[in-house]
């Protein structure tokens, strides 16, 4: 093992930094202490352009989680990306990605937030198109253009904040009760958060971004790009309560959660199933944030980062050993060949379902109990619990296809868990995926919520998870019956399995009219009237007249001599005059 490689040095630096920042974050949390650093760069028309940093318990703990996961992902990449010729370039791009996210986390100022946000968008494009092919290029363009909408929204909100004389939104929490400007700014921030966190109707870029290398997916889907929107809305959560935009965000989040859970049950690509589970959890975070529980949304954001990074690392280990095959139908009986990967995979998958005493349980169970306790209508209640059941269904379906049954991969091929770097990265996240939830719940909620519910609501969560797991077993075990149903209800299945046609609506549907207009205008003007009246038309007219005159000269020598004498007369006339 080379301790002086860029991977090892980056791992060591990020791991030590995350430990120190986490300890500092715990101290700030216990002491209820925060640091606000500000210095002025220049001043234009009374508006100061300042660089600001906020160091409170929320930013420090989140930053420490980003650095911890990033350190293990980079270490994991040493083995996973071993065939990469330009490894240093890959690591440097990942480090730029981490730096952009860190810049966004510690910024209470809209301009510095825009710098971090733009950095995430541009570097994510470079990472998505890292494997240079047509599919990666299409996915990269969809990712970049979807996130450009959020960039434009933040730029417009920066312009609107000129009305307040400063871009430090953190100053205006208590002074914007009747402000129209801040109402518009909040709407724009919600739009930006919806694009970054891939809420409906911007959901199609998240599964498309799976074209990136798997270590990048583990980083993007756990703690960086997709969580940036949720984190920004957590910072703006007082504005959500003041202006009453929560109902809209609640509906969008629940619909996204339901749509992603439904789509994952019809998907066979391993990475896309996990990407859709990320989308489902982002909808859950958005919806619980819209109900006013910002601390709980942040808590779920942290626990989700731990087990989702582990889930992607396990998926990458399987894909790496199966020679880049991602179809779950080619898997089976992996537990006999890769026991460590299987243990980590099942622990993270159970944590995603909300298995008691794993990391995901502490946040997810509390969220569902608070939903039962809150004043929500039947639709929201239904979407929450059905989506939880669908999460258990696709998790069990994934377990059934990959772990149980016969090995469906090519005969005579063996694979194992011998990759040191991959195993170290997974073990580093396994412990926090088990113990991180309880530890964080004791830190963030030292006085726990008291939720008093009747028995049928208290046991509804575990009942929904068990029924969802059984549904996933039925869908997997009775594959023929499942296929017959799919054929019978082909339109319904294609609608549910294709994210409600959102990839089509985001690409071909939007592009059809402009491309059709471009084709018709090009055919009509450039190759039609433009050619007829422009260069080709003039050229044809001149050629016709030249040929006509040449015919005169060739057929009648008298006309030629008469014309010559006429021109000589004109020349002599002009000469003497």
Model description:
A hairpin with a 2-residue loop joins strand 1 and strand 2. Strands 1-2 form a two-stranded antiparallel sheet. By secondary structure, it is mainly α. The mean pLDDT is about 85. It is globular, with a radius of gyration of 31 Å. It has three domains: about 180 residues, no CATH class; about 260 residues; about 70 residues. It is found in: Mitochondrion inner membrane. GO terms for molecular function: NADH dehydrogenase (ubiquinone) activity; NADH dehydrogenase activity. InterPro entries: NADH_DH_su5_C (IPR010934), ND/Mrp_TM (IPR001750), NU5C-like (IPR003945), Proton_antipo_N (IPR001516). Its EC number is 7.1.1.2.
List keywords for this structure.
577 residues; 2 strands; 3% strand; mainly alpha; single chain
Topology:
Layout: H1 6-31, E1 35-44, E2 47-55, H2 57-80, H3 87-105, H4 110-128, H5 134-160, H6 180-196, H7 205-208, H8 214-220, H9 225-235, H10 237-243, H11 246-264, H12 270-290, H13 294-321, H14 334-337, H15 339-353, H16 359-373, H17 378-403, H18 420-444, H19 455-458, H20 460-477, H21 479-488, H22 490-497, H23 502-506, H24 508-533, H25 535-555, H26 557-576
Antiparallel strand pairs: 1-2
Helix pairs in contact: 1-2, 2-3, 2-8, 2-13, 2-18, 3-4, 4-5, 5-6, 6-9, 8-13, 9-12, 9-13, 11-12, 11-17, 12-13, 12-17, 13-15, 13-16, 13-18, 15-17, 15-18, 16-18, 17-20, 21-22, 24-25
